[in-house]
Amino acid sequence: MTTENLLPEKLQRIVTMFRSAPKPLRLQALLEYSKKLPPLPEKYAEHPEFMQPVPECASPFFLVTEPRGDGVDLYFKVPEEAPTVRGYAGILAEGLSGATRQQILNIPDQFYMEMGLSELITPMRLRGMGAILMRLKREVGPEQTQEQTQE
Predict the structure, then answer these.
(1) How far apart are the first and last CA of the chain?
(2) Which of 17, 83, 90, 109 could form a disulfide with 33 if both were Cys (CB 3.0 to 4.6 A apart)?
(3) Domain 24-142, what architecture?
(4) What predicted TM-score, i.e. pTM, was given to this entire model?
(5) Which sequence spans correspond to the domains of the chain?
């Protein structure tokens, strides 16, 4: 099964670019995305306790979502010493920019496998990527929204 028509347009372009690139260029592209990860807004840099950890990820990984109309703004905190995971966060940040909550929820759980990343990184890192996406979906999902409105 391919992810065509299941991913937001920006994310699909990234997946297609990775899939069509030779293996050495895929790794280089992943490292480039690690450099593209936007810095945290000051409110999260100064108050990291507002960010949600992804404990299943081998590297320290934190995320926070902010509702924006029918979409959501995403922020990630990943150490520079974890370039592959940071690159994945950069891909999500760019690929999901402007996406609606529903588009994020519709993303296939292992969409990143179509990018050819399994040839570049360890199975443990791949499981971490899956955990990041699942946490992200929980954060933007309807159950989370209802809980937030009840607080």
Answers:
(1) 40
(2) 90
(3) Alpha-Beta Complex (3.90)
(4) 0.88
(5) 24-142
